[in-house]
Amino acid sequence: MIRLGVLVSGTGTNLQAILDAVAEKRLDARVEVVVSNVAGAGALERARAAGVATVVVNHKEHADRRAFDAALVEVLRARGVEVVVLAGFMRLLTGVLLDAFPMRVVNVHPSLLPAFPGVHSQKQALDYGVRVAGCTVHFVDAGTDTGPIIAQAAVPVEDGDDEESLRTRILAREHELLPRVLQWLAEGRVVVLPDPSGRAKVRVLT
Fold first, then answer.
1. Which of 109, 120, 138, 175 is catalytic?
2. Average pLDDT of span 168-194
3. Above pLDDT 70, what percent of the chain?
4. What are the extents of the domains in the chain?
């Protein structure tokens, strides 16, 4: 079993997918704490409904990003968190948090990285004219959505898609992929390999 800390800023549908997977015993994990930088985030209510501890760490109350991340690390370590999951967390992380949990911070992103990093990935995909979009679960590094990729799921772009319709279909795949990857982590199947280029790569053991 792995002990998770989930960072959220919004409604928390990916958090709900994790909570459901734990409840249904598809994910051998315990969510130790859900932390938000937004006091009114809907994700906090989802956590409370599941009996999970919640903490609000307001980024506006800290001098800079590093001080904010130090406060997050304090909360996560106090609860024995082993893996940190970004589930709609709308803050860029610094080395303070990444160094505290090296290759143990996981993010889900709504594109097939390395294509369309950053915000508004669905709009980027539609503007580019791709016929296949999707989502990626990856470890977080110091770049913007540049960390080692663990798994991806493809979503066809349909005629007539707009940003919202594509977002909705990609999100449904995120809800499937993220708990599955976390279970791989719980089973010790995700191995980070050094690469001659200096960039780590991931192998998932069968």
1. 109
2. 96
3. 100
4. 1-102, 108-206
Say whether 172 sits in a helix, a strand or coil: helix
Q: Is the pTM of this model over 0.85?
A: yes
The amino acid at 14: N
Contacts 24+ apart (CB under 8 A), 169-173: 170/110, 170/122, 170/133, 170/134, 170/135, 171/13, 171/14, 171/110, 173/134, 173/135
Class assignment of domain 108-206?
alpha beta
**127, 166 contact by CB (below 8 A):** no
Catalytic residue list contains 59? no
User: Measured on CA atoms in the order 96, 102, 106, 112, is the torsion positive or negative?
Assistant: positive
Taking only the tens place, the pLDDT of each residue in 9-28 is 999 999 999 999 999 999 99
Q: Are 21 and 184 in contact (CB under 8 A)?
A: no
Alpha-carbon dihedral sign for residues 40, 44, 46, 50:
negative
Neighbours of 6 (CB within 10 A): 30
184 — phi, psi (to 5°)?
Answer: -60, -40
Place of tokens 């002990």: 3
Q: Does domain 1-102 have CATH number 3.40.50.170?
A: yes
User: How far is the C-alpha of 51 from the C-alpha of 46, rounded, in Å?
Assistant: 9
